[in-house]
Amino acid sequence: MSDEAATATTAAEAPAAEPLPHGLGASLPHADARAKTEGTFPYAADLWAEGLLWAAVLRSPHAHARIVSIDTTHARAMPGVRAVVTHEDVPGTSRHGRGTPDRPVFASEVVRHHGEPIAAVAADHPDTARMAAAAVIVEYEPLDPVTDPERAFEAEPLHPDGNLIRHIPLRHGDPEAAGEIVVEGLYRIGRQDPAPIGAEAGLAVPRPDGGVELYLASTDPHSDRNTAAACFGLPADRVKIVVTGVPGATADREDQGFQLPLGLLALRTGCPVKLTASREESFLGHAHRHPTLLRYRHHADAEGRLVKVEAQILLDAGAYADTSADALAAAVSFACGPYVVPNAFIEGWAVRTNNPPSGHVRGEGAMQVCAAYEAQMDKLARKLGLDPAEVRLRNVLATGDVLPIGQTVTCPAPVAELLTAVRDFPLPALPKDGPEEDWLLPGGPEGAGEPGAVRRGVGYGLGMVHMLGAEGTDEVSTATVRVHDGVATVICAAVESGQGFTTLARQIVQETLGIDEVHVAPVDTDQPPAGAGCRGRHTWVSGGAVERAAKMVRTQLLQPLAHQFGMSTELLQIADGKITSYDGVLSTTVTEALEGKELWATAQCRPHPTEPLDGAGQGDAFVGLAFCAIRAVVDVDVELGSVRVVELAVAQDVGRVLNPAQLAARIEGGVTQGVGIALTENLRTPRGLIRHPDLTGYALPTALDAPDIRIVKLVEERDVVAPFGAKPVSAVPVVTSPAAIASAVRAATGRPVNRLPIRPQAAVVNAR
After folding, report:
1. How far apart are CA 369 and CA 328, in angstroms?
2. Three-class DSSP category at 564
3. Three-class SS of residue 277?
4. 263 — alpha (psi -120 to 50), left (phi > 0) or beta?
5. 406: phi > 0 → left, psi -120 to 50 → alpha, else beta; which?
6. 754 SS3 class
7. Distance CA 32, CA 243 (A)
8. Is residue 659 scored above 70 in pLDDT?
9. Contact 619, 405 (CB under 8 A)
């Protein structure tokens, strides 16, 4: 047989190529996955402009100090320096903040936290900018910092607005109720940094009309635009934010105190200005998870059913309010967890201190209380002599039950099903006793541990989070779908921060219109607002807007055909790129129907309204809830206190799986972030000063720390009020996994484990 014939035969016998993933329910890959993998994806740190200047920010070395004087003379005189700005050079509003605008752009009279911006410099070289910033002479009068949040109640006011940001007294049921069994506990949660994979960076370009364009990795561009315009003393339409690639976001990605000096320098110099933060500046600038002090008392009857929960929750907001009021609302509302509690009395406070600012970090408020109430459930089980899973099953929440805030759970709440799934999942095998298994010991092969000192523990965690904003937040998003030459384009200001919105938008349009090629336009503030990228907002609100716009285009596409055949559009369906009627009379392709047409539609999605909590902590504050159960298996060296997480079995309430691969990745990422909270991540701040603000001193979990993660069950009970019925998936495993790991360490050691991250001494049973 000739070579040509052989080739032809092989080609003819080759199997047909697998069709690409398509529509909702398929594991459609990220459109930008290849570019990110190859390192060609454009981030803000990669941007350039003709005539570029470089910026640097001078930050306070003190946690609390009075500013006596600021002298910029030497900095301005340095060769290559083009501008130096301080509080005196802010033309508009001098305060900003994500939730409460209480933070100065530049400190003027008082420094309230380590790293607070004092001045910013623009120069023709980054080294020159840094040296000029260091040449700004600031005379400080150091003050005694208030770093203990309990002291904040009696301390002198640290801020014109006072030290107390919010107090929520929750009252639910009978205050005289009591149970036969009572357990108490005091718990502390450390300060976690979001530690984005890429530090903050941005480019500001002045416009001919006197405005400015900011190229940033913003996750809430319209809010940032409005804040910047107010600061610059400009109308909003003369400030534009263009969203660049976002190098990781598990919180509010961009520190506004980083963005504002950048724009001020561009306006002052009339030149493009770029600022790339060092990792140290990143730690100093952005918000962290709230350190929290929690006191709990649980009452139960002799069967282990909860009678009453009493708690005090104190959130350390740091120097400024940011989103602390929202975090406190979540903490107080979920203080009892996904359990039926007929009587609850919770006191919650968020206070200012001279510690670094706290703000929105995935699962804020809910994560801290989960660690505490699950520790209480372990104590209750131990006192009653019950299995920890059993005592939880006797109390779990279900659809139709009432939360301590008085809101009825109307969404699916399959908590018992989730817990049963992880409880019944087979346990991992014990490691063999041999040198080849040394790497399985806590501490790894180079650790000092002995196999005989290792004990295995199994623990449980049940967590819950709210979806979207809360307490009357007006959640709305707008999207446009345009079809031209058989190609669809989605225009929506929902930022792709790794949560997969651009992939979801493509899938929605593919499903609705039967079009394979779908593009999502880059985001900027010339588009209508879509809101912040947190709490599953874009899956629900922005995805809902895309779906509505796509359905409107679908109607435009089908109406002429329906009219031609004398039927309604409801009798036509689109599947596999074809349009067919219910009776088979009409059959054509989407491509043929679109030929020569340009169709477009714009739609909004706005979920049902919520209401603020009242003076007794009561109200329908949340649009919806999501739940998760995790069983943790750990090995603990009880002589050294080292912990190895062997396995985390996860069962989660997801509503509907829209992209299986993407969903699994989000759950695994959330669980791994929780491992860091449980064991390693603690930003230490003695006397308010951040110690070791780098990734050497701040211990993030690595691939070697990541356990086996088993997603044992995904409950697809659709939430009827959510578009597609789907729920957010990444926050609730972050909330739940630290509590489950702590529970497993308690089981292995018998120690109370009342602090996160877990310190070695908390897991030591027998010293050598």
Report:
1. 10
2. helix
3. coil
4. alpha
5. left
6. coil
7. 15
8. yes
9. yes
- Distance (Å, whole) CA 247 – CA 259: 16
Residue the block writes with tokens 């009252």: 171
Segment holding 404, helix H or strand E: none
Give the amino acid at 444.
Answer: G
Q: What is the pTM of this model?
A: 0.93
Which residue in this structure is represented by tokens 């559009």? 569
C-beta separation of 671 from 703 below 8 A:
no
Residue with tokens 């390693």: 680
Alpha carbons within 13 A on the beta-carbon side of 493:
25
Helix (H, G, I), strand (E, B) or coil at 536: coil
Tracing tokens 């495993």 back to the chain, one arrives at 733
pLDDT in tens, 612-645: 999 999 999 999 999 999 999 999 999 999 999 9
Q: Which residue has the tokens 């840094």?
A: 130
More confident residue, 470 or 344: 344
Instruction: Give me Rg for the CA atoms of the chain.
Output: 28
Q: In what order do the strands lie in the sheet with 117-123?
A: 81-85, 117-123, 53-59, 273-276, 201-206, 212-216, 239-243
Which regions of 291-342 does DSSP assign to beta strands (E)? 292-300, 306-318
Task: Tell me if residue 660 falls in helix, strand or coil.
Answer: helix
pLDDT digits (tens, 9 = 90+) for 717-761: 998 888 888 888 889 999 999 999 999 999 999 999 999 999 999
Amino acid at 544: G
The number of C-alpha atoms within 13 Å of 543 and in the hemisphere containing its C-beta is 28
Spatial CA neighbour of 75 closest among 128, 141, 139: 128
pLDDT of residue 469: 81
Task: Tell how many helices (H) and how many strands (E) occur in the chain.
Answer: 17, 29
Task: Name the strand (E) or helix (H) holding 732.
Answer: helix 731-749
Give the pair of three-digit tokens for residue 723. Answer: 């578009």
Angle formed by the axes of helices 731-749 and 660-679, nearest 10°: 50
Question: What's the rounded Cα separation, in Å, for the pair 147 and 168?
Answer: 22
* Residue 325 near residue 473 (C-beta atoms within 8 A): no
Yes or no: say if 624 and 411 are a contact pair by the CB < 8 Å rule. yes
First to last CA, the chain: 78
What are the structure tokens assigned to 577, written together? 């790129």
Examine the pLDDT at 446 and tell me if it is beyond 70.
Answer: no
Does the pLDDT at position 5 exceed 90? no
Angle between helices 256-269 and 221-232 (to 10 degrees): 50
Rounded CA-CA distance 349/149 in Å is: 10
Rounded to an integer, what distance in angstroms lies between the CA atom of residue 273 and that of residue 129? 11
